[in-house]
Amino acid sequence: MAEGQDRTGGAIKERPDIRNDPKKQDPALFKVVLLNDDYTTMDFVLHILETLFQKSPAEAYRIMMHVHQNGRGIAGVYPWEVAETKAATVRSLAADAGFPLRAAIEDA
Hints:
- By secondary structure, the chain is of the alpha+beta class.
- 39% of the residues lie in helices and 19% in strands.
- The protein has helices at 42-51, 57-70, 80-97, and strands at 29-35, 72-79, 102-107.
- It has a 3-stranded antiparallel sheet with strand order 2-1-3.
- The longest helix is centred in the last third of the chain and has 18 residues, at 80-97.
- The model has no long low-confidence stretch (mean pLDDT 89).
């Protein structure tokens, strides 16, 4: 080795921990929340949960009943852009089907 090159003197150099690097943080997550109304059918909500949010029939039923009984329920948790797109798609599909179903976005 030439003079001036970095020598460790037999010691092991540690790699920087990239998990704590502020430049490489996971994106913030947001909840897509379905809001209950008196007109949207349970079948339509199940359809939305199974197709748009890829929930199993059992999970879709559980979420749908939670929305029905509590007025709101979490359909999924996603990065902002995905959450925004899914909420807009819920509103669009509901309007096309003649239902007033709404979806809100909240901090996770």
